[in-house]
Every structure is written in structure tokens, then in C-alpha cells.
Design brief:
27% of the residues lie in helices and 24% in strands. It is built from 9 helices and 20 strands.
């Protein structure tokens, strides 16, 4: 595994010629330094890079601005393998989550990545939430995802203290995954396939090349070395923007002003739970409510069985605002008590926070007015550019399916 960036060395001498000679001497001669360049070393970028690196006679570079991969949204979430039950049947979020769930379970089994099918109850306390559950139940019938109604006696007998006044849906295919282990596995497979990782290498500019259609002669990517501060430039035949929280900045640096987008930052605060009075064996989610920026402050488990609550939704101005807002503990308690009335308030401790990259503020999370789907597309008017924007939940679950889609878009097996 490479532990320092390959963009430039402290001496100021570019190492690209040496890297190409060492790693790509058997590749066919080509004008660009690399066949594929993926910007963004989160779980989605890693999955895409690993997928593309498996293509014969190609070279793939993964650029990450931080000192190691997977330090932003990919490592600051609930680590849930979602079933794909919340979004419209024709949405990319549904299609890629449902397919990605199966790919992810199979991948984890094959490569011994920590995971567990915990199951999940989605619980309703009022008529609005009950209506949401009925909508989820109908959707699952349409898309073929397994859910079932949990009876009152079962809730009482096996609910482990959970309240569900207006009913509960069981999602047996929901689970949890070791996101760090998953990303390290993807990174190792990428490098085993000959991929090159450039960490601590923030992108300064991306320029499409060609006298006709932009990108028809490849792309030029300028990167600044986070260690030395020096800049280097590489060329690539294709460019994949999977930069997560930085994706809109990269998008806006390429397209004309009238095509610019804005990213909104939904911070999620998590609280760990130190009490020994509760032993919960499954995930518990409140039914989604209109106007919420997330799926509610839910109860999740890690692979050690430890309980944590979150995320809430706190709109912030910067993706760097990652300190847990302990002042939101009372709000979290109020939400948690709706479905777990016996929660020990004193055992809740601020744990960590993550930022969700959203393309709209206060829009619908599931479907309907204000819903923002994943954007994964060949950008119109350019050649060789695959653009990924608004990749939030269920991005972790969907990561392997997203990688397949990007590969298909680039090589023609997927049509938009």
C-alpha cells in the first residue's frame, strides 16, 4: 500500500515517469498518463477505481485529498446495509441500493469483511407515520423487497422495550458492515489490480482537452502535494468525479456558470449508549416523516453489539464542521423516547458526527416534492467524463452497484 502521494516528492521532482515505467511498462503506448482517473477516495470512489482497474490494458489512478482514504462521509455514518425500501421505484437510489445490497453481502462473504444481517424494525407512533409505513409496504411489493408487518403480540414479546403504537414493519435484509474494513479491502484489491493511489493530493483544477468536444483529447488534472505544497499535472483519457463533499466544487470548476450547482451540508450527530439495561438485537428506525432531512434519529448497532443513536439533521455551512454538537442531546433524547421510552438519558454520550452532501435543503428524503436522486451520468457536451453528485445515503450500500454503473456508462453496457 502506498503511504505517500505520488503526485510530487519533497525534492520537487515529478515521479510520474518513474511510476509509469515501474507499473505500466507492459501497457500499450497511449497519449495520456492514465486511462482512468477517479477523484475521491471514499467507499464509492474506491469501488469505482477497483472496478475500472480490472479492465485489461488500462491504467487507473485514484486521487484523494486527505492523508488516507475514507475519512469523510464513508467513515462517519451508521454503517448500515440498507434494504432499498425508502425511495421511488424508478429512482437510482432504489435500483442501486437493492442491487448493491446483494453485491455487498456477497462481497463481504467472499473477502471476509465484517458484517451481519441484523434486520430492522421501522416503527410508527402516529397516523402520519403509519401512512408512511403503508407506503413503504406498497413500494416493497412493487420492487420485490422482503418486508412484513409485525403483530402487536410480537412487538410486546420480542420488542426489547421498543414502542410501536401504530405498528411496525420488519426489514429482514437490513444489516450492518464494517465500513473501514470494506474500504481497506477495496483499496487492497485496487492496488493488486495495478491501481495507483495518490493520497494527500487535493485537486487544483480539471481541464477538458480537445479542439472539438471538450474531453475528446482527454483531461488534464492538476494536483497540489499536501506534503510539499508543490503542484503537478497528469493527463488522463477519462475522468470520474466521485469526490463526495468536494464533488460540486469540481463540477462547478468545469462547467459554465449557468450549470453550477450548490451543495448543502446536513450534519448528523451521533450519541453512543453506555447503559447495560438495554439489550437490543436489531436496528430500530422511526417511520420517515415529511420535511425531515434524514430518516430520523435511529438506533443502530456495531459489530460488537454496542448501541448508538443518530444521526439527527443539523444544517451547517461547512463540511469541516465535524465536532459533535452536545447541545442537541436533549433533542435526540426526545426523539429516542418516542420509540424507546425506557432509554437511560444519563448513558447517552456524544460520539461522532458526519456530513451528508445534499443537493437540496429541507427536501424530501424518500420521494415526492423536493426529492433529489443520485446523479450518476456522462456529462452532456463532454467526452470521457462521468459525474457523480449528491451521493449520500444509501451510497455505502450502493457502492458496488454504482461502480458497475459507472463502468457500464463508460464502456457502453449501460444507457442513460
Amino acid at each position: 500500500m502506498l503511504t505517500r502521494p505520488l503526485i510530487s516528492r519533497a525534492s520537487g521532482r515529478s515521479c510520474w515517469a518513474a511510476v509509469r515505467k515501474a507499473l505500466f511498462s507492459s501497457s500499450a503506448a497511449r497519449q495520456a498518463d492514465f486511462t482512468h482517473t477517479v477523484v475521491g477516495g471514499g467507499v464509492v470512489g474506491l469501488a469505482i477505481a477497483r472496478q475500472l482497474a480490472q479492465r485489461p490494458n488500462t491504467t487507473t489512478l485514484l486521487i484523494e485529498r486527505h492523508a488516507s482514504v475514507g475519512t469523510e462521509t464513508s467513515s462517519r455514518n451508521s454503517e448500515v446495509i440498507h434494504a432499498g425500501i425508502y425511495y421511488g421505484p424508478s429512482s437510482l437510489k432504489t435500483q442501486l441500493c437493492v442491487h448493491g445490497k446483494h453485491l455487498l453481502y456477497d462481497f463481504c462473504e467472499k473477502h471476509s469483511v465484517g458484517h451481519r444481517r441484523t434486520g430492522k424494525w421501522i416503527v410508527a407512533q402516529n397516523d402520519v407515520q403509519r401512512e408512511a409505513l403503508e407506503g413503504i409496504h406498497r413500494l416493497c411489493g412493487e420492487i420485490g423487497v422482503d418486508v412484513r408487518w409485525v403483530g402487536e403480540e410480537e412487538i410486546e414479546r420480542e420488542g426489547e422495550g421498543v414502542r410501536a403504537v401504530k405498528g411496525a414493519l420488519d426489514s429482514p435484509t437490513t444489516g450492518i458492515v464494517d465500513s473501514h474494513g470494506l474500504m481497506m479491502c477495496l483499496l487492497g484489491l485496487f492496488e493488486d489490480a495495478g491501481g495507483v493511489v495518490a493520497v494527500n493530493s487535493p485537486v487544483e483544477s480539471v481541464t477538458p482537452l480537445g479542439s472539438g468536444t471538450p474531453g475528446s483529447s482527454g483531461w488534464e488534472v492538476s494536483v497540489r502535494d499536501g506534503f510539499s505544497g508543490e503542484a503537478s499535472t497528469i493527463t488522463t483519457e477519462t475522468f470520474i468525479n466521485a469526490a463526495g463533499l468536494g464533488s460540486v466544487d469540481i463540477h462547478n470548476s468545469i462547467v459554465p456558470p449557468e450549470q453550477h450547482k450548490q451543495l448543502f451540508y446536513a450534519k448528523g450527530n451521533y450519541f453512543s449508549y453506555a447503559a447495560s439495561t438495554h439489550s437490543i438485537s436489531r436496528l430500530i428506525y422511526p417511520a420517515p416523516e415529511p420535511g425531515a432531512g434524514g430518516l430520523g434519529t435511529h438506533l443502530t448497532l456495531d459489530l460488537g453489539g454496542r448501541i448508538r443513536f443518530g444521526p439527527d439533521v443539523e444544517w451547517v455551512d461547512s463540511p469541516e464542521d465535524l465536532a459533535v454538537n452536545a447541545g442537541r442531546k436533549d433533542l435526540a433524547i426526545a426523539e429516542i423516547k418516542k420509540y424507546l421510552p425506557g432509554v437511560d438519558e444519563s448513558a447517552l454520550v456524544p460520539d461522532y458526527a458526519g456530513i451528508r452532501p445534499k443537493l437540496g435543503k429541507r427536501g424530501a428524503v424518500t420521494a415526492g416534492k423536493g426529492f433529489h436522486d443520485f446523479i450518476i451520468r456522462k456529462e452532456d457536451g463532454y467526452e470521457g467524463w462521468i459525474n457523480l453528485l449528491g451521493i449520500e445515503s444509501p451510497g455505502l450500500t450502493s457502492s458496488l452497484a454504482i461502480a458497475e454503473r459507472v463502468d457500464g456508462l463508460m464502456y457502453g453496457s449501460v444507457k442513460e
